[in-house]
Amino acid sequence: MMRFKTVCFTTWTLLLLLLVPILYPHEIFAAKQRKSSLLVFTFGNKQKFRAGFNGRKIIVHLQPRPGDGMYRFASWTLRDWKNRFKDIKKYNRNRPLLANHYVSIPFKALNNDIQSMVLQAVFSNDSGEEDGWAHRVIYPGETVSLIAGVFAHKDIPPAKLIRYNNLKNQGRRLKKGDTVMIPWKWVKESLHLRHIAVRKPLTMGNKDYDSGYAYYQLKKGESLYSAVVARFTGRTLAEDVNRMAKQLLKLNRIKNEHFIPVGKKLKIPINWISEDYLIQKRTLEKIPDTTKEPERESVARKDQPFHIILDPGHGGIDPGAIIGSKKKGYQIFEDETVYDISLRVAALLKKGKYIVHFTLVDPDQKKPVVRLATEKDEDEYITVSPAYQLRHTGVGINMRIYLINSIYDRLVRQKVPKENIMLMSLHGDALHRSLRGVTVYYPDHRLRSASFKLSHRIYRRRKEYRRVLRFRNRDNIKSARVSAKFGKNIVQSFKNSGIKTHSSFAVRGYYYRRGKRTLPGILRYSKIPTSVLVEVGNLNNVEDRKALLKPGYRQRIASTLVASINQYH
Length: 569
Description:
Blueprint: H1 2-23, H2 25-28, H3 30-36, E1 39-43, E2 47-53, E3 58-62, H4 70-75, H5 81-84, H6 87-91, E4 103-104, H7 112-122, E5 127-128, E6 132-136, H8 144-151, H9 158-164, E7 179-183, E8 197-198, E9 203-204, E10 213-217, H10 224-233, H11 238-251, E11 265-269, E12 278-279, E13 284-286, E14 306-312, E15 322-323, E16 332-333, H12 334-349, E17 354-358, E18 360-361, E19 381-382, E20 388-389, H13 393-413, E21 421-429, E22 439-441, E23 451-452, H14 457-460, E24 469-470, H15 473-496, E25 507-508, E26 511-513, E27 516-518, H16 521-524, E28 530-538, H17 542-548, H18 551-568
Parallel strand pairs: 14-17, 14-21, 21-28, 22-25
Antiparallel strand pairs: 1-2, 1-13, 2-3, 3-4, 5-6, 6-7, 8-12, 9-10, 10-11, 15-16, 18-19, 19-20, 22-28, 23-24, 26-27
Helix pairs in contact: 8-9, 10-11, 12-18, 15-18
């Protein structure tokens, strides 16, 4: 009887062992998956370490240096190392320390310098911004509790971050693409995450009392608005530029903005400086994974048609910027301007091996015009099925998002190479009047969302509607790279044509609105790998506005855009 029980027990054990991989396959391979996901970095004198996130916690593997014993290894890796150096023995599983052999050390046990280095390695999309440290979720399993624990002071509970970031509906749960902002006053100073260096021509203050400021020496012919505020802070909207200029005048004790001496050394708060002029000191370097094949740059297929999704901005009830004097003949409507340029672009493209897909149509205007309309025209509609007459600005933007992604998905299903599809949205800037020229925006992956979801019946009625549009982080990163490259091609084409481009930020991945980085919705939610938004000029600037009112200039812009597409294709 006893023997029978033993046999039965053994049989059932074997059955369970066979069933577990079938019922819970992800559990069996979890450990292997997590180990392989660790990235390798170097710091200092090519000292290697491995780091990653396994869905629950941060994993860190460090290598002892040649000659390191427990005491010496602990001295440069652990916090409170004099009292805890014996823990190294436990972390190394009672084995002798060997150079070039990794030791797994809990993140909380590491000293501040190593923690800071690991956080910047693991969460590579994070960045320091004006308001604080922006943590961007890139791994499944990240929680607000984790973020609060590693970045914030002990007295900052997760609930504070939830309230500050309006995450009440999500609680501690996060998804890829979410951004959690930690205000600077809550960030651990010991992590040294603030930007501490600037690029030329800016200089840093040398004394403790002015270490939070950058300095710029004003040159002959330069103005406070364009040469300082817009250039070094990245702010371009008139409201932001004027506000910051006023504060700079007060900070530098300048009474009259029109009489600033040449050579005057202007003091600028560090937390105002754009990331283009900031150096965040990172002493680590990622080692490429040699087990993976290198990613090849995708190239358009010249044996197949090239598809351009052309998006003239605004329209209908939303004319965009309306600037200038009607009496003097210099009034301009943004939507009419960019629609005319779009028609000119389309006419030139159709002469080549291109297929144009318009997102917006004006039934009353079939061809480019000599003189732009000076009255508001609300006949335009979005080319969804059924068509949407533009009666609401927000709805119009959302319709365009569904439309461009629907066109893209349809073309991909028709076996059109992804590299042969492009989105180009045309707009006219309304920046500070001192700024001039063309600006091209591409989708900075740090500002992209993981999904786009709406449920109103006005969208559900359309053929292009999808319950949820999802975006992968790796696709967003690739899109940012190829779109920025194309943006540079466009700007170079304009320079070659003698058309003015923005002096400081001709190619940008974002813009500031009310002090916050943002991205136009048409770029934020585009699946199309090559996606750009072109601001054809600053309508607030007299020279740009007068030029855009001339049909010959609009034709030059159209020809230049087509030339850049030809070059890219």
